């Protein structure tokens, strides 16, 4: 990025120096230092907790706290500047990954358009009994959810070395079919049942679904596919999306990522054929491919304008602790989530935060591990997670041991099978039951 303002350039250099200092401290196991006050109310709690933890060094501090601290500290470098306020250091990576997802985007756009038209015209129901319609809907719901689940495989913080071709392999329908047997816990039927019941019981009422977002780019695209599907079929009347307030964990969605994604889809031909950073150009899209992507853009824009697809950031999502703290730290957000029929938490970090990132026995029920977000909380929680860290619950007895014996599974040393994103869990807790 070229910078023509001398003051801005000097500020940019100073930010680079701060990043280098942070990297040095981490590599050389220095103590974590208090965050500089950038005017946001979360700085006090971050620093208070740092003090309560005894001002630890980088290699001896709980992982969850140190990761959140790292991204929050990076944000202060930009927030305290004059010219770089609000700059997302990860934005270019996010958009280039979405560009390299072209084959999967086109495949899904075509499939989705067909389904949305069918849902809105009622054509798919011709001559079918109510039972057959329900079965077909259930299968489609599962398909949409699985697309949404495996979209998380392109998490930028972990997949920095993937080539364009690798990303494509991860995202196509064949890859998703092959991965079906890798879903270790699958509570989709229970989630579908409560949503379908809500549609019957509240036929003319509000039926809201919340999605606590994870990664931007292709994963946000598949989240919007699911959102559009739920609205088109009437399984939901409103979708509330929860992005992060600031650039977070490399590829997490900020409100600007939502508008950036829609802007790419206004003219997919220009976006998908323009040269990439290395100068490589791409073949043009066909007329029908352009039309499929523009159909999505128009539908999602209309949902957004009608107030049926809402972005609602909240500072709680970038605090340093787990979601066990939600009722106490953000009671108004906790009460608001109770208004939803279903709250979908996407990705590994949200799962770790739900389960307190604790060393649970893997057979611990999900409903137990999520503590105050579980039974009788008033919140229905559905977690979509491709496993990229040790914490995992809700497995059958012996499952963890079996997976550890696989090549690269970790054996007695570590739960390495849970680090790769190859295995997934879809876990549900009905806090309204």
UniProtKB/TrEMBL annotation:
Gene Ontology biological-process annotations: DNA damage response
Any single GO CC term annotated in Swiss-Prot or TrEMBL for this entry: nucleus
Enzyme class: hydrolase
Pfam families: ARMT1-like_dom
Cofactor: Mn(2+); Ni(2+)
Classification via InterPro entries: ARMT-1-like_metal-bd_sf (IPR036075), ARMT1 (IPR039763), ARMT1-like_metal-bd (IPR002791)
Alphabetic keyword roster: Hydrolase, Manganese, Metal-binding
Damage-control phosphatase ARMT1-like metal-binding domain ranges (all copies): 6-403
Coiled coil: none
Molecular function, one GO term: metal ion binding
Entry EC no(s): 3.1.3.-
Listed transmembrane segments: none
Reaction(s) catalysed by this chain's protein: beta-D-fructose 1-phosphate + H2O = D-fructose + phosphate; beta-D-fructose 6-phosphate = dihydroxyacetone + D-glyceraldehyde 3-phosphate
Note on domains (UniProt): Subfamily III proteins have a conserved RTxK motif about 40-50 residues from the C-terminus; the threonine may be replaced by serine or cysteine.
Biological function: Metal-dependent phosphatase that shows phosphatase activity against several substrates, including fructose-1-phosphate and fructose-6-phosphate. Its preference for fructose-1-phosphate, a strong glycating agent that causes DNA damage rather than a canonical yeast metabolite, suggests a damage-control function in hexose phosphate metabolism.
Family listed: Belongs to the damage-control phosphatase family. Sugar phosphate phosphatase III subfamily.
Protein name per Swiss-Prot or TrEMBL: Sugar phosphate phosphatase
Source organism of this protein record: Penicillium angulare
